[in-house]
Write a structure and sequence with these properties.
455 residues; alpha/beta; TIM Barrel; Immunoglobulin-like; eight-stranded parallel beta sheet; six-stranded antiparallel beta sheet; 20 strands; 30% helix; elongated
C-alpha cells in the first residue's frame, strides 16, 4: 500500500555496547564482533521486526559519534566485509538495514581536523569547520577555537554550507549505499543540520535508491520543519516518548491522548499524514523498565507504542524488560553487552517478549495501524481507547493503567459490524453501538472491527 518504512517495525542495535566492545578505540588490530551481532538477526526476525537501525558504525575514537573515518567500519566491530555480510543476512530475512549518519560533526582524529592541527592557517580544510578562530583556544589547548556540538570539543562542528564538505558527505553516503546496500540513514543531531544539505541529501539518495529512507534525530521543536518531499521522511517523536512513561507513572492518560490529538487528530493534528519514528527508550535515555514506577505498566506502554500513529521501534533488550539508567554523563548502563546466543531461547519464553512479538505481528498484518485515521473513543485518567480507521475496517485499542480490573463501555464507529480480538482471535459481541470490555490490571485489548456500511 505504501513504502516499506511506513509499515516497518524497527529493532534498534547499539553495536559497540551490545557486542561488549571497548568504549575507547585504542587498538590497532581489527576484532570481528559482527559474528556475534549476526546472531541477533534470527531473534529480530522471530520477534517480527522488519527493519534494523544499527549504529554508530563509522570508525570512531570512543562512543561512535566522534567519527575518525567515514568509509571504514569501526575496527572494534570488524571490517567492511563483516558488515556487508551482516546486511546480506538481514536482507535474506527480508529485514531492511538503516545506519547512523553522523554528519553534523567529526571527531578530532578525522583527517581534516588533524590537517588543521598540523598546518594551522595553511590547511586547505580550515573552511570545513564552523567558527574556526586562530585567536582563541579550547580546553584541548590547540591554540585555536572552533564550534563544537553543545560545547563538547571532542565533537567538531562541520561547515555544511561549504560545497566541499557537502560533496564529501554525499560521496560517503553513496559509498555506503553502493558498498553495503543499506536501506536508509538515521541522521544524528538532525536539528543541527543545514537545511540546504538535507535537501541535497534527499535528492542524492532518491536518485541512488528510490525507496531510501532518511530519518532525523530531533528532540524539541516543530517536527514538521524537517519532514517534506524535499527534506526528510521522518523524525524521532520525543514528545510521545515522554508521554508514554509519564502518562503511566502519573496515571494520566490525558497527557498521552492530548499529545496524540495535537499531533495526529484528523481535525487539526499538526503532523497528520506523517510517519514519525516512535520509541519508548533508546541509547540516549533511561530504559523504559527503569523509568516506570509500576513495572507492569510496560505492557500497556508497548501496546500504545505499536498501535498509536507512528513507526514503532524496540531498543535491544527492552523486549524482555532489561533495565538501565544514565549515571551523570555516563551512558554505558543504557548500552550493556548481551550474549544473545546464550539467552535467546530463555528470553523468547518471557511473557513480555511474547507480548511484544504479538504486537509486532498485529502491527505488520493490519494496514490500519500504519495508514488508519486516528479517532479517540474513550478517555479517563486510567483508561483510554481509540480507533485506527481505514476504509470499512478499523483496529480498536483499549488500555488500562489502573492496578485494578475494570469494565468499560466503548462507543463504536457507526454502522453494524463484528469485532474480533486480534490476540485471542475470539469473536466479541458488539451490539447497541458499544463494546463492553473487561480490562485486567495494567491490561490491553486489541480488536479488529469490520463494518459493511462503511465508517
Amino acid at each position: 500500500m505504501g513504502k516499506w518504512f511506513e509499515e516497518a517495525v524497527f529493532y534498534h542495535m547499539y553495536p559497540i555496547g551490545m557486542s561488549g566492545a571497548p568504549r575507547q578505540n585504542e587498538q590497532t588490530e581489527i576484532v570481528h564482533r559482527f559474528e556475534e551481532l549476526e546472531q541477533w538477526i534470527s531473534h529480530i526476525s522471530w520477534l517480527g521486526c522488519t527493519a534494523i537501525y544499527i549504529g554508530p558504525l563509522f570508525e570512531a575514537s570512543s562512543h561512535g559519534y566522534d567519527t575518525k573515518d567515514y568509509k571504514q567500519v569501526d575496527r572494534r566491530l570488524g571490517d567492511n566485509g563483516d558488515f556487508k555480510r551482516f546486511v546480506e543476512k538481514a536482507h535474506e530475512q527480508n529485514i531492511k538495514v538503516v545506519v547512523d549518519g553522523v554528519f553534523n560533526h567529526t571527531g578530532r582524529e578525522f583527517f581534516a581536523f588533524q590537517d588543521i592541527l598540523e598546518k594551522r592557517e595553511q590547511s586547505p580544510y580550515c573552511c570545513w569547520y564552523k567558527g574556526l578562530n586562530f585567536g582563541g583556544n579550547t580546553n584541548y589547548n590547540d591554540g585555536f577555537w572552533y564550534e563544537a556540538w553543545r560545547g563538547c570539543y571532542e565533537l567538531v562542528n562541520l561547515n555544511l554550507q561549504n560545497e566541499q564538505v557537502r560533496q564529501y558527505l554525499l560521496d560517503v553516503i553513496g559509498f555506503w549505499i553502493e558498498e553495503f546496500d543499506i536501506d536508509g540513514i538515521r541522521l544524528d543531531c538532525a536539528d543541527c543540520l543545514d537545511f540546504g544539505f538535507m535537501e541535497a541529501m534527499r535528492r542524492f539518495t532518491q536518485e541512488k535508491k528510490a525507496d531510501f529512507w532518511l530519518m532525523g534525530e530531533v528532540i524539541h521543536g516543530d517536527y514538521s520543519r524537517y519532514i517534506a518531499d524535499h527534506l526528510l521522511h521522518s523524525v524521532t517523536n520525543y514528545e510521545l516518548h515522554k508521554g508514554l512513561y509519564s502518562g503511566h507513572n502519573d496515571h494520566n492518560y490525558f497527557e498521552i491522548a492530548h499529545s496524540i490529538r495535537r499531533q495526529f487528530d484528523q481535525n487539526g493534528g499538526i503532523y497528520r499524514g506523517t510517519f514519525l519514528y516512535s520509541f519508548v527508550d533508546n541509547h540516549d535515555v533511561d530504559r523504559i523498565a527503569s523509568k516506570l514506577v509500576n513495572k507492569e505498566h510496560i505492557y500497556p506502554v508497548f501496546t500504545l507504542l505499536f498501535t498509536l500513529p507512528g513507526i514503532p521501534s524496540i531498543y535491544y533488550g527492552s523486549e524482555w524488560g532489561i533495565e538501565g539508567r544514565k549515571e551523570g554523563p555516563n551512558d554505558d548502563f543504557l548500552r550493556p553487552a548481551v550474549e544473545i546466543g546464550s539467552i535467546s531461547q530463555q528470553v523468547q519464553q518471557e511473557k513480555l517478549t511474547q507480548w511484544v512479538r504479538a504486537l509486532a505481528r498485529i502491527h505488520t498484518s493490519r494496514p490500519e495501524l500504519a495508514y488508519g485515521v486516528y479517532r479517540e473513543l474513550f478517555l479517563t485518567n486510567r483508561q483510554y481507547a481509540f480507533a485506527r480507521i481505514l476504509g470499512e475496517s478499523c483496529v480498536l485499542v483499549a488500555v488500562n493503567n489502573d492496578e485494578q480490573e475494570v469494565v468499560v463501555r466503548i462507543p463504536l464507529p457507526m454502522g453494524g459490524g463484528s469485532c474480533r480480538d486480534l490476540v485471542s482471535e475470539e469473536e466479541i459481541a458488539c451490539g447497541d453501538g458499544q463494546l463492553e470490555l473487561r480490562l485486567e490490571p495494567c491490561g490491553s485489548r486489541i480488536f479488529l472491527y469490520e463494518t459493511v456500511g462503511g465508517i
